[in-house]
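Hey team,

Sharing the Centrosomal protein of 19 kDa run so nobody has to redo it. Sequence (70 residues) first:
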Amino acid sequence: MEQIDPLEDPNKVDEETLQRKKAAMQEQFEKHQLKPGDPGYIYDKEVDFSADAGTVEHCEWDSEDDQSGF
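Structure output:
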């Protein structure tokens, strides 16, 4: 019950199950969270995701030269 299944739709479970799943996700988050004083903690970490630009799929709707006028 406390396992997180990425294929499970959380909108289709009952409220009690949803709360248990949320508690399990919060526990995992806190276990992996780096806090000030922890080894490897960086205050303002910036990650450049453009290094993987060769693996990014581009879509028409997500272009910089949008001519829609909005």
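The chain has one helix and no strands.

Ping me if you want the raw files.
A.
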